[in-house]
Design goal:
It is a single chain. With about 250 residues, the chain is an alpha+beta fold. It has a single domain, classed as Creatine Amidinohydrolase (Alpha-Beta Complex), CATH 3.90.230.10. It is about 30% helix and about 25% strand. It contains 4 helices and 15 strands. It has a 5-stranded antiparallel sheet. Strands 1, 2, 4 and 5 form a 4-stranded antiparallel sheet that branches. A hairpin with a 2-residue loop joins strand 4 and strand 5. The chain is globular and about 45 Å long. It binds magnesium ion. The site of magnesium ion (MG) has 5 residues, from loops. The site of magnesium ion has 5 residues, from loops.
Length: about 250
């Protein structure tokens, strides 16, 4: 069942979304050579705590951190630890914030001293694919229109869409209906209605789309070892199109 948020619920989503966006911005700014992914997680926990909020991911199905940090061939769900960021790394950061009953969820990919044009193309493609998906959001559109817009943007760049993981609805639960694939056919799927809140989050690989999950049970990696990128916003379906809740 896809829930629609109204009035105070939507106001609460705006607050949790903005908090998530602020945490992500500050953690992304802290990604420099030498910092460990555990230190990034500690920063996220501190920032979330200062906002009197709770990390959405910590303890979710047993996930052990507030932040997902996925480096290079890691696609999503990387577990923070002793690894230190090196020059040339592609660092995807995903954070969820729970505040007064509602979640916000957002992700970005940070490049640390990367000049490889293929990687710049990958990251640009992923951001633009997310934004193309968001641009397709309006009342009366179908969910497949959003999925298709994301996929088309990625295809134009020669990169590939990860198919094994998808975006999702969000609200009182971190993951709500509907699932939002980053590929699909226009005119298919549920009709978007005002008040739906959605996480649009393409995961895009420079090489092949195939991914595997590591033995830690979480970390998703590309099978060909080539880099991946991930961008995500939480949006609400508004009368005139998407309202981006995690923008700061
Ligand atoms: Mg998400």
């Amino acid at each position: 069942m896809i829930t629609c948020k109204r009035g105070r619920e939507l106001d609460a989503m705006r607050v949790s979304g903005r908090l998530a966006g602020e945490v992500l911005r500050q953690v992304a700014a802290a990604v420099v050579p030498g910092i460990s992914t555990r230190e990034l997680d500690a920063l996220a926990r501190q920032l979330i705590d200062e906002k009197r909020a709770t990390p959405s991911f910590l303890g979710y199905r047993g996930f052990p951190a507030a932040l997902c940090v996925s480096v290079n061939e890691e696609v999503i769900h990387g577990i923070p630890g002793a690894r230190r960021i090196l020059p040339g790394d592609v660092v995807s950061i995903d954070v969820g914030v729970f505040y007064q009953g509602f979640h916000g969820d957002t992700a970005t990919t940070v490049l640390v001293g990367v000049s490889d044009p293929d990687i710049l193309r990958l990251v640009d493609a992923t951001r633009r694919a997310r934004d193309a998906g968001i641009a397709a959001v309006r009342p009366g559109a179908k969910l497949g229109d959003v999925s298709h817009a994301v996929e088309q943007m990625v295809r134009q760049t020669g990169c590939s869409v990860v198919r094994d993981f998808v975006g999702h609805g969000i609200g009182r639960q971190l993951h709500e209906d509907p699932q939002i694939p980053n590929y699909g056919s226009p005119g298919r799927g549920p009709v978007l209605k005002v008040g739906m809140t959605l996480c649009i989050e393409p995961m895009v690989n420079l090489g092949r789309p195939d991914v595997s999950v590591l033995r830690d049970g979480w970390t998703v990696v590309t099978q060909d070892g080539r880099p991946s990128a991930h961008f995500e916003h939480t949006v609400a379906v508004g009368e005139d199109g998407a309202e981006i809740l995690t923008a700061v």
